[in-house]
């Protein structure tokens, strides 16, 4: 538990007027002495090789405990206190969409839904409310996934108690072992799955399906989407779904992984208690044969080109993927095998760096990548993907294959190898440094991932030792051998996606792939070493004018003579890790209608444009062997650079950020590349309702403020590298600068680095009063008449948004936190109405946006993807929910279902340095933010019904919500009739479900 969490979490509960005291009985209850318990019967111990490591010589990670029960169920358990008090449970069933028969397509995923609908210990619709009462947030802490090869149930339980943990295992055992698969429940859940299918459909999904059908032709993966088909889902009945459940949901197909802030032996006891008497019905059924990639008929090895396809989608950007396919075979996960994987990784990294260098220099493609992957235990393949800049796909293909051909004909240089090895070494070493702060949920997911690919897990120390132990093998001969093996295979398949049908044919694609590639030696990277100690200073070191405590723990503020201010907090809560953020300038306030397109270009090209004498390739060389980053973000009222770095690299990370402000470079190619990417991708926004929302919602909900418009090709055409420099050069010198540095580091050394870097910058140009005063407006609701946009996707897809204005700034920040609870209440009701009761939408959502850097501009938004005919249903339900919250305070149980998960979410977040950094942003100019941190958890976790009603009246009452509907081209927006017709006549087949 971090010091900040201990100090603030406890203090918040004492000072907040919203926090309820503990019941007297809870305060005075005597401490019970637990009775001795026998060790779990199936826990593996001593010299026994754990089941996960059988056949492997990878050293066992002894922090894990393993068990294998007589019924075949296996488990892995581990103690971990990140975040404090949380327990993460994963239940993996070794069955996914590849295990289905033709008539069962979609059953694995449908079962995932059904387990959350009703089971032995949970009545219909009770699962989600029950997990919420245990503090778990829907979607964040309570989730599941179905892939071609497995189904995994994921529960993260915050602030768990012994009683809550016991109850959780009981509930999960009932869900997995005895779900209620009645025809009534199937009828209620299938519309939800169909809504999910509808949200996934469209041009992108069609391309994905055709890609799988082409690359995996003749294999089950070619036509086994986890979502299934509408025909098979609608035909599902109780008998067929129960048969699928009985066939695959068996103990020998199940692995349970539990990680958390509890003695792992207790996890083992609970697993054995609730799953030990589980037995499968009938004999076990082996998994079906997933098939192998087959070479073309009559192929003799000289011409391995197999299936190829051209996918024509009018609004999709050009993209090509081809793959060298090999059969997948389970391997022995040994040290030697992992050494081979590391050589493969270095080989791919060298090619990818060469491909990227070619793209940066003005090549014929926007991006290109080589990646070896084992796909769904169906193929071991090397994929080559790239995006041509224009319709000359053959030139782009030739350029990409030329880079690869050179790598296959000439060994890499030792300098290239050393560069990639240094990067990997840093990654492995960072994992060792930061293992103390590795979240339990991630550790659990690592086991699940290993199970899926039939491999083991290794401790960070083991991974680093294996990597460093093979240093001598990282030489040109070995890397060259592995590079060539990556492109050996019995069959090559490919697909080209294009918006123009006459641009390519399958015959042309086959011919182009069969043609010999000319090696392109120009893509090799020249030897050149660049080091930080050779770089020029940012300027004359500055003067510190004041150092003072910030008023929270030992966090310090450092002010420099040039106006730059820094917040510094050195702690050892996250060993080796340092979070850095630099806030400067005016953010979106700095743009005008004319300069708005440079926001999009800035997000893509500002960092890539270079620093001083260093271009983008030089920057890559400079950070070789370092853990450094250069994230750039445009906020409501500020620009920011950010990075997660290491203690050893923090000084150089600060230099990079300061140098970008003090001596920026303005290369043309990154701007031209970003411009091409924006123009190429614009049409794809129109392919779905979600794309249209991504393109236009921010612009419209800010009253058509051009600063928030997604620039179309005509707007982009007017941008130039010269205009880019003119705009952004001024922004680099404008507005205040605030730096936040939090993590494990030498405080005095970092303060001195700040003095030599940011303290050395020239005084900043103040923001003009006009810029400083800009706050986005909210559109007129026009008496509830919706704005209607059209998309060019599927005819059964639509989206709807309703929004209300709120506020911004920190003066009423505590009110905004209570507003978050109200919005979560709204979200729960919206989910219940549109998903559970009506089956109209898979994942409707309500969110609150309250910008802290502006005095206004906040919104509440609710949105959903649904059928066009259900758009009026969405608006009616949203209005009904808002009006009911205005007229009636919510019940205490409903408040707890919203507030407890939200409070727990912030409770856990407070243990993260990065989260504390985000809360401290702006504190050098607004000191009140520091005091507001003390009540953050309590403000989000406790409230009263009258407060919720008061906020509902303030933000929902007296005004209609602003509305937006996105419907297909060629259709008109449907009009709702009366309420009875809307909620009953249109959905007579779906029973009303309470809860969730």
Automatic annotation (TrEMBL):
Chain segments carrying region Disordered: 975-996
Keyword check for Acyltransferase: no
Residue ranges annotated for the Peptidase M16 C-terminal domain, each copy included: 239-423, 720-900
Composition bias type Basic and acidic residues, residue spans: 978-987
Signal peptide residues on this chain, from the entry's feature table: 1-25
Domain Peptidase M16 N-terminal as annotated: residue spans: 85-223
Pfam family, one: Peptidase_M16
Keywords per UniProt: Hydrolase, Metalloprotease, Protease, Signal, Zinc
InterPro entries referenced in this protein's UniProt entry, alphabetically: Metalloenz_LuxS/M16 (IPR011249), Pept_M16_N (IPR011765), Peptidase_M16 (IPR050626), Peptidase_M16_C (IPR007863)
Family under the similarity heading: Belongs to the peptidase M16 family.
Protein name: Insulinase family protein
């Amino acid at each position: 538990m971090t010091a900040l969490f201990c100090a603030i979490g406890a203090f918040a509960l004492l000072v907040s007027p919203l926090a309820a005291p503990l019941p007297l009985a809870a305060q005075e209850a005597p401490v019970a002495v637990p009775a001795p318990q026998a060790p779990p019967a199936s826990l593996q111990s001593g010299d026994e090789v754990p089941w996960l490591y059988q056949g492997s010589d990878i050293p066992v990670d002894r922090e894990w405990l393993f068990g294998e029960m007589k019924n075949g169920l296996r488990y892995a358990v581990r103690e971990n206190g990140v975040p404090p008090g949380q327990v993460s449970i994963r239940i993996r069933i070794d069955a996914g969409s590849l295990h289905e028969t033709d008539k069962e397509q979609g059953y694995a995923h449908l079962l995932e839904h059904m387990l959350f609908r009703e089971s032995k210990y949970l009545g219909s619709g009770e699962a989600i409310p029950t997990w919420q009462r245990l503090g778990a947030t829907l979607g964040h802490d309570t989730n599941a996934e179905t892939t071609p090869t497995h189904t995994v149930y994921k529960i993260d339980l915050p602030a768990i108690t012994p009683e809550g943990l016991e109850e959780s295992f009981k509930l999960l055992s009932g869900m997995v072992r005895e779900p209620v698969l009645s025809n009534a429940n199937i009828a209620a859940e299938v519309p939800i799955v169909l809504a999910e299918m509808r949200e996934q459909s469209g041009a992108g999904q069609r391309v994905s399906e055709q890609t799988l059908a082409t690359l995996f032709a003749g294999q089950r993966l070619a036509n086994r989407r986890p979502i299934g088909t509408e025909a098979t889902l609608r035909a599902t009945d109780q008998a067929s779904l129960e048969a699928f459940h009985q066939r695959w949901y068996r103990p020998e197909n199940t692995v349970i992984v539990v990680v958390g802030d509890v003695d792992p032996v207790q996890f083992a006891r609970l697993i054995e208690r609730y799953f030990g008497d589980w037995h499968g019905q009938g004999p076990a059924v082996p998994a079906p044969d997933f098939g192998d990639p087959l070479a073309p008929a009559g192929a003799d090895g000289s011409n391995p080109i197999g299936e190829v396809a051209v996918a024509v989608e009018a609004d999709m950007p050009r993209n090509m993927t081809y793959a060298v396919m090999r059969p997948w075979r389970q391997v022995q996960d040994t040290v030697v095998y992992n050494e081979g994987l590391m050589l493969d990784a270095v080989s791919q990294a060298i090619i990818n760096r060469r491909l990227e260098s070619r793209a940066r220099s003005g090549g014929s493609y926007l991006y290109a990548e080589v990646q070896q992957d084992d796909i769904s235990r169906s193929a071991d393949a090397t994929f080559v993907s790239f995006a041509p800049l224009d319709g000359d796909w053959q030139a782009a293909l030739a350029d990409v294959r030329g880079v690869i051909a050179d790598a296959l004909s000439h060994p890499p240089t030792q300098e290239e190898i050393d560069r990639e090895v240094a990067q990997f070494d840093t990654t492995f070493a960072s994992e060792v440094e930061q293992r103390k702060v590795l979240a339990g949920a991630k550790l659990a997911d690592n086991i699940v991932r290993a199970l899926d690919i039939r491999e083991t897990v290794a401790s960070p120390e083991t991974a680093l030792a294996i990597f460093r132990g093979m240093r001598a093998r990282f030489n040109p001969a070995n890397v060259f051998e592995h590079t060539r093996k990556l492109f050996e295979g019995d069959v090559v398949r490919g697909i080209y996606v294009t918006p123009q049908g006459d641009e390519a044919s399958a015959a042309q694609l086959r011919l182009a792939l069969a043609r010999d590639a000319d090696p392109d030696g120009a893509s090799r990277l020249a030897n050149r070493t660049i080091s930080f100690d050779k770089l020029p200073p940012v300027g004359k070191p500055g003067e510190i004018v004041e150092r003072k405590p910030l008023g929270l723990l030992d966090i310090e503020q450092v002010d420099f003579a040039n106006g730059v201010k820094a917040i510094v907090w050195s702690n050892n809560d996250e060993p080796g890790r340092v979070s850095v953020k630099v806030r400067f300038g005016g953010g979106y306030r700095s743009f005008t209608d004319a300069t708005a397109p440079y926001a999009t270009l800035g997000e893509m090209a500002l960092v890539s444009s270079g620093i001083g004498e260093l271009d983008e390739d030089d920057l890559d060389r400079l950070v070789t062997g370092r853990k450094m980053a250069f994230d750039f973000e445009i906020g409501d009222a500020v620009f920011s650079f950010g990075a997660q770095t290491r203690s050893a690299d923090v000084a150089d990370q600060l230099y990079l950020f300061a140098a970008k402000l003090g001596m920026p470079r303005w290369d043309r190619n990154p701007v031209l590349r970003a411009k091409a990417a924006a123009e190429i991708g614009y049409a794809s926004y129109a392919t779905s309702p979600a794309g249209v929302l991504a393109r236009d919602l921010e612009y419209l909900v800010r009253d058509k403020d051009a600063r928030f418009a997604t620039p179309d090709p005509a707007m982009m055409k007017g941008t130039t590298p010269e205009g880019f420099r003119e705009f952004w050069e001024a922004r680099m010198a404008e507005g205040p600068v605030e730096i936040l540095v939090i993590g494990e580091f030498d405080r005095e050394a970092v303060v001195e680095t700040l003095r030599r870097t940011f303290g050395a910058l020239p005084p900043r140009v103040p923001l003009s009063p006009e810029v400083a005063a800009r706050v986005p407006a909210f559109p007129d609701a026009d008496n509830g008449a919706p704005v209607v946009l059209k998309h060019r996707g599927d005819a059964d897809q639509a989206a709807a948004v309703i929004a209300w204005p709120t506020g911004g700034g920190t003066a009423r920040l505590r009110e905004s936190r209570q507003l978050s609870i109200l919005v979560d209440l709204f979200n729960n009701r919206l989910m219940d109405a549109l998903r559970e009761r009506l089956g109209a939408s898979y994942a409707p959502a309500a969110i609150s946006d309250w910008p802290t850097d502006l005095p206004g501009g906040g919104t509440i938004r609710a949105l959903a993807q649904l059928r066009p005919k259900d758009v009026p249903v969405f608006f009616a339900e949203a209005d009904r929910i808002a009006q009911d919250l205005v007229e009636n305070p919510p019940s205490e149980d409903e408040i707890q279902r919203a507030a407890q998960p939200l409070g727990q979410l912030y409770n856990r977040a407070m243990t993260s340095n990065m989260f504390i950094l985000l809360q401290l942003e702006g504190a050098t100019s607004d000191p009140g933010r520091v005091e507001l941190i003390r009540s953050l958890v309590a403000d989000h976790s406790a409230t009263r019904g009258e407060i919720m009603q008061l906020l509902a009246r303030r933000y929902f009452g007296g005004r209609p919500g602003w509305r937006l509907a996105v419907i297909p081209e060629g259709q008109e927006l449907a009009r709702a009739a009366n309420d009875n017709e809307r909620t009953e006549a249109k959905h007579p087949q779906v029973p009303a479900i309470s809860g969730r």
